[in-house]
Design brief:
alpha+beta; 5-stranded antiparallel β-sheet; 4 helices
């Protein structure tokens, strides 16, 4: 029973991600959905040729799927941010963010920071 408690505590601590302050540098477009759909379709079609065919089909499908999503104008919105330690990271957000805005990054998601100046404006 002690091992189960230790395992649960370890898994919880590893799964919890700390929030990092970051600054939005630019808005970028990503084609994750097109790439994943294309790779799955390519894998199924290439599977006719066996395991190697499935791998080759998945790679080619990912290339064409991302390109098709980009050409059709259905690219998804993401943001390039600079984390407090200096490195840059591409994250997604359900909110529309402005260039230069300060955000909290948790995992691969960006959230608006709540500071006193924005709260005062909202109260008025």
């Amino acid at each position: 029973m002690k091992k189960l408690g230790t395992l649960v505590l370890t898994a919880t601590l590893l799964a919890a991600s700390a929030a990092n302050a970051a600054e939005v540098l630019e808005e970028v477009e990503v084609q994750t959905t097109g790439k994943s759909t294309g790779s799955m379709t390519g894998m199924m079609i290439g599977g006719v040729g066996g395991p190697i065919g499935a791998l080759v089909g998945a790679g080619i499908g990912a290339l064409f799927g991302g390109g098709a999503q980009d050409v059709s104008g259905l690219s998804e919105r993401a943001y390039k941010v600079r984390i407090a330690d200096g490195h840059e990271k591409v994250v997604r957000s359900s909110e529309v963010l402005a260039i230069g805005e300060e955000v909290d990054v948790r995992g691969r998601r960006a959230f608006r920071t709540t500071n006193s100046s924005t709260m005062e404006v909202a109260v008025r």
